[in-house]
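Much of our argument rests on the idea that a fold can be written as discrete symbols. The record that follows shows the chain in one-letter code together with its fold in token form.
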Amino acid sequence: MKKIDFYFDFASPNAYLSHKVMQKIKERYDVELNYIPVLLGGIFKATNNKPPMEQFFGVLNKNEYQGIEMERFVQRHDLNLFKMNPHFPVISLQIIRGAVAADMDGYLEDYIDKVLIHMWEEPKKMDDPEVIKSAFDESGFDSEKLMNQMQDPEVKAKLISNTEQAVERGVFGIPTFFIDDQIYFGKDTIWMIEEILES
């Protein structure tokens, strides 16, 4: 069985879009998806990278094209539940720590599925602790436990470690995938991954 490492953070709309398509690929092929929660802001800081809206600020037509390209991807993969979060950019530190906690407790993919709804389908201000707690309750999670885990030194250390190891491996943005030691960055490389799985 092929294993795909998926470096993931909720902060990126492209992570949502990629997650949805990769779940379809997981169903289609004999493949294991290994989600690795990382902090996108930490990756940007370590690699001197910037988010596209900042990176291309002042470049005539570039950010507008990014929007067109995203809409094409949404239509191609029938991801019509996607909505741009009106609070974007949302600081994902707390909810990605929650992902680390969920991973430790064995329900990471369920956590990702449900928290993504609150980020990119029924978008909320998911860096507000009260909003986060309410979203956890709505999703059927033990919100008290998760809110405490997000402040746990072990959880914090694991997120830092994941992020540092990602950068060491070559990650500079999200979403990033690895098959064996080969890196694939961005939702636009998913077709390459699918070709590999087909062969």
The two ends are 13 Å apart (CA to CA).
